[in-house]
Amino acid sequence: MDDKKRDYSDIIDMESPSMKVPLSGSERASQYLAFEAVLSGRKLLDMGEEIWLKSYAPEDYRREIYKKRRKKNTVNR
């Protein structure tokens, strides 16, 4: 998770200027915590999916998923 930690002010500042409203310190902190919660939730979902695939998924489904991941990883390289 440490590799995903960063300053989210650049994302928050990407809003169009017409939509921008000055945020107080507590509002910025709330947005930061919301981003962290989303990242943590995504990580937990990914971990749960891996546990399910390794322990409970049918063998043919597991093979299909791993093949798709392998293809996706070779395309992205």
Concise account of the structure shown:
The protein has 77 residues and is an all-alpha fold. The protein has three helices and no strands.
Could you tell me the strand content as a percent range?
A: under 5%
Order of helices and strands: HHH
The averaged pLDDT comes out at 80
Helix proportion? 55-70%
Tell me the total number of β-strands: 0
Structural shape: elongated
Major sheet:
none
Q: Please tell me how large the radius of gyration is.
A: 19 Å
Distance between the termini: 23 Å
Structural class: mainly alpha
- In the residues, how many domains can be counted? 1
The poorly predicted ranges are: none
Number of DSSP helical runs: 3
Search tags:
77 residues, mainly alpha
Description:
With 77 residues, this protein is an all-alpha fold. The protein has one domain (2-76). The protein contains 3 helices and no strands. It has helices spanning 9-12, 25-55, 59-76. The chain is elongated.
Secondary-structure topology with pairs:
Blueprint: H1 9-12, H2 25-55, H3 59-76
